Amino acid sequence: MFECSAPGKLILFGEHAVVFGEPALATAINLRTSVTGSYSSEPMINGRPLREEKDNYVKAAMNQVWKGKPLDLTIRSSLPSASGMGSSAAVTVATLGFLTSLDGTFSKELIAKTGFEVEYEVQGRASPIDTTTSTEGRAVFLTKEKDKGFLWQIEKDDKSWLLHARDIPRMKIVVGNTGIKARTGPLVENVRRLVSGDKLARQTIKEIGRITLEGLKALREDDLERVGKLMTSNHKLLGTLGVGHKLLDKYVEVSLPLSYGAKLTGAGGGGSMIALTDRPEEVAERIAELGGKSFVVETEDRGVIVDEG
Ligand code: MEV
Fold this sequence. Notes:
Radius of gyration: 18 Å
Shape: globular
Strand content: 25-35%
Bound molecules: (R)-mevalonate
Largest sheet: 9 strands, mixed
Number of helices: 9
Distance between the termini: 8 Å
CATH class of the largest domain: Alpha Beta
CATH architecture of the largest domain: 2-Layer Sandwich
């Protein structure tokens, strides 16, 4: 049987603000989740029955697209879960890729759109940046205006997002994972509550949007000094929205003397931070000395792929 795999992602700029219509930029990374499977008497994952709670992304993905006989899916991932590295998007997209390859409906646009519906259903609130990045690979820029590299438009309720592919410089990025698993849904909901009642928080969301646009420009110009400064500013602003964590702040602090910049990535509240640096091994070591799990990852061109094996 063939296998389908999809990459994790890192948000470089704009997490949380993107849920409120601001732009965001993410890149695929060279850690992946793969899904293969065979027919079975009941829905299973890795040889055991599908669990309601733990397998919620896979279950929701199956409900969205699969009309065939029950399957036993074999899922392997090199992405730590609930870490801000897009493990939920990768398992959702790889599962959808496998199922739609099996029934002959595979298309990136369908997978990205259905993947977003799955995340929305499981998390209660989401933007399509994670699932589109895992589907398309490279870097993905999400904004409200149509621009070059346009991929597709995704709509939900009163929101509409335009997703674009972007080529950014090939980079090594250090990821510092706190090991604290923070769920995206409640974090997003807390920010929503804050933003609905607080003018300063609304301004912060706008400021993050401005930083994202500037960050994209700096990346296009290969101005890593500027990219790094903007990342660090983005980190501070996310802290004021209540999605920071003292360990993330510490990892950022020890990374900065050796880096262009550093920030939390993804939903925050634990999870991971990233550092942009020419000295990735040393930065990874500093984070590890503080008890964090560190990874040196690379930007990745490939999105969802089918491997006929
Ligand atoms: C999570 O990786 C990114 C958030 O902006 C939520 C989302 O966009 O769905 C926090």
